[in-house]
Design a protein that fits this description.
heterodimer; A: 256 residues; alpha/beta; Rossmann fold; 2 domains; six-stranded mixed beta sheet; four-stranded antiparallel beta sheet; 9 helices; B: 358 residues; mainly alpha; ABC transporter involved in vitamin B12 uptake, BtuC; two-stranded antiparallel ribbon
Chain lengths: 256, 358
């Protein structure tokens, strides 16, 4: 059998006909798209649209019912999460998953000692963790327990943990949900800085304003399928998107 | 479409350090100070003190301390898989029994020296751990506990029924006298030394694992396997290796125990109460640290021996009551309680009970 994955691909991430069924429910159905190097792609959609499922399928935390996932041209469909992590793919979790028994610094250091180009010693990994905590702005909580962090800081910790694995592709799952405006602004600024240093970013978001300002392209999921894809202005003016995602109320308010 | 990645602090972090092993070793030596080496020095001092103590005490007391050393090793071993990695095995006694029977069968049936049989026993223990670990470590929580319990019962029954090799339920005897003995019997002083070294080694293994990258991987697996996988940790390998290291220590202990006992039955070395004691000692001392199981093992074994000598038939009842009380008042383990209390200068036991109540 010749898999479609045998065709080389220049994209950092390519998803082909990806589907996932939970019992009788198709959480994701025939989704195809690709992300080029250095792009920031936003994925939006209402609750239950399949956004987190898509991330979980890409990172190996779920096995697809059908379709393929390619990372820099390599077929990684159905591989274990740690194998995909070593293909330089990192992610955050929508529901934050800190290692509760460890300090904030140690949480981040784990990625630096088990990810890519990993640090040879625990001590070096802890030094890397300090640099990353400084970058995301929670250096003052380095010795705290992760459970003591605020919602915003807990999401920053998720980001630092993912960055510690030294990824080329970063999937962020609702890293801005529940944040206040100034916090969103600093998150957006950080995402731009990450891209400028060479990381390709796929951002799943619920916060419309934030996603529009960071993304080069936006992909809209609805009932597990792609409803629209394109630049933020294109997508936002697409009547199907307005209907499905923003709702009629938004249209009527705009036309007032 | 976009400019080349700009060199900057983020890019530098993402490039990694790329240090050589020699540079790392040099670093490690340079950062050694009295302040960060005191646990190792304290351990060394304790080891030396125990060596010196042997010259001062009666053989009966030596025998008592030998049992304490045995349980220190067993508790440290259980803590590696049950404490750090978070997989509460209720079948660790299987490795103890297999280690014991490997030594006995090799020495009795094939006249192999103890020192040749010992590594074989460790190997058998590790192999069995890998064989049952690969499928069973996919189970979580209670299911893993029950499955390991079953595996240990199964191992005992197999040994029990291999009558032609193991002597079955009739037991097995290791020849220890004259020309019949492949290795001369150690005697009480010899076994004191052997179990002391075993206990010390188990502490060293646990402590070095805990501070290593692998140690952090075990804790990550314990806390959240999805998150551990996402940062590049091969959770299957971590679980199986932790189970294997634990099994190696337990099998080694079983091997020495067999030689010490000379004669034993499957029900002796596959006695589930060994597993139960390992669990209780770790939980009472405080799991997920090196000192916790050490304190738990020493404390409980000394207490149990004291009660047996002084209370007669009531000793088990009182021993059980003490365990219940400690678990009620210090659910996180005595050592963890003391550490937290010292750190926060808050010693109220009642507050501690409230904090950990479900």
């Amino acid at each position: 059998m010749i898999a479609p994955s045998d065709v080389p691909s220049a994209a950092v991430l390519e998803v082909r006909h990806l589907s996932k069924r939970f019992g009788g429910l198709w959480a994701l159905r025939d989704v195809s798209f690709s992300v080029g190097e250095g792009e920031i792609v936003g994925i939006i959609g209402p609750n239950g649209a399949g956004k987190s499922t898509l991330v979980n399928l890409i990172t190996g935390h779920l096995r697809p019912t059908g379709g393929t996932v390619l990372i820099s041209g390599r077929d990684v469909t159905g591989l274990h999460p740690w194998v995909i992590a070593h293909d330089r793919v990192a992610r955050t979790f929508q529901i934050v998953k800190p290692f509760r028994g460890l300090t904030v610094r140690e949480n981040v250091a784990i990625g630096a000692m088990h990810g890519n180009d990993r640090d040879g010693s625990v001590r070096e990994a802890l030094a890397t963790a300090d640099e990353l905590l400084d970058l995301v702005g929670i250096a003052k909580h380095a010795n705290a327990a992760p459970t003591q962090l605020s919602v915003a800081d807990a999401r920053r910790l998720e980001l630092a943990k993912a960055l510690a694995t030294r990824p080329h592709l970063l999937l962020i799952d609702e890293v801005m949900a529940g944040l206040r405006n100034p916090e969103i602004e600093s998150a957006v600024e950080l995402i731009h800085r990450l891209r400028d240093s060479g990381i390709t970013i796929v951002a799943v978001e619920h916060v419309m304003k934030a996603i529009v300002s960071v993304s080069d392209r936006i992909l809209v999921l609805h009932h597990g399928s792609i409803l629209a894809m394109g630049s933020p202005p294109e997508v936002l003016s697409d009547p199907r998107v307005i209907e499905a995602y923003l709702g009629r109320r938004y249209i009527s308010r705009r036309s007032e | 479409m976009r400019p080349e990645p700009r060199p900057g602090p983020i890019a530098a972090i993402l490039r990694g350090r790329g240090r050589t092993r020699r540079a790392l070793l040099g670093d490690w030596i340079r950062v050694r100070t009295l302040a960060n080496s005191w646990p190792a020095l304290a351990g060394l001092a304790a080891f030396a003190a125990m060596l010196g103590l042997q010259q001062l005490i009666a053989p009966g007391t030596q025998r008592l301390l030998t049992a304490v050393f045995l349980f220190v090793a067993l508790a440290q071993a259980w803590n590696i898989i049950g404490g750090y990695t978070g997989y509460a095995s209720f079948g660790q006694v299987a490795f103890f029994g297999l280690g014991a029977y490997t030594v006995a069968v090799l020495m009795n049936n094939y006249h192999v020296s103890f020192w040749m049989a010992l590594p074989a026993a460790v190997l058998v223990g590790v192999l069995f751990a890998v064989v049952i670990g690969v499928p069973l470590l996919r189970l979580r929580g209670h299911y893993f506990a029950i499955a390991t319990l079953g595996a240990a019962e199964g191992a005992r029954e197999v040994i029990n029924n291999m009558t032609s090799v193991t002597g079955g339920g009739g037991g097995i005897t290791i020849p220890t006298f004259g020309d019949q003995a492949p290795t001369p019997y150690f005697g009480k002083p010899g076994f004191y030394l052997a179990f002391l070294v075993l206990a010390a080694l188990s502490v060293v293994v646990a402590a070095s694992l805990a501070r290593s990258r692998f140690g952090y991987a075990m804790v990550a697996v314990h806390e959240d396997e999805d998150a551990a996988g996402a940062v590049g940790i091969n959770t299957t390998v971590v679980k199986v290796v932790a189970f294997g290291v634990s099994a190696a220590i337990v099998a080694c202990a079983g091997a020495f125990y067999a030689f010490q006992q000379i004669e034993f039955y499957p029900t002796d070395v596959f006695d589930a109460s060994f597993t139960v004691l390992m669990v209780i000692m770790v939980v009472i001392g405080g799991s997920g640290s090196v000192v916790g199981p050490l304190v738990g093992a020493v404390g409980l074994e000394l207490l149990s021996q004291f009660l047996r000598v002084n209370l007669g038939s009531f000793n088990q009842l009182i021993f059980g009551a003490v365990i219940v009380l400690v678990v009620v008042f210090f659910p996180q383990g005595v050592v963890s309680y003391l550490r937290d209390a010292w750190r926060t200068r808050h010693f109220s036991v009642l507050d501690n009970v409230r904090r950990y109540r479900l």
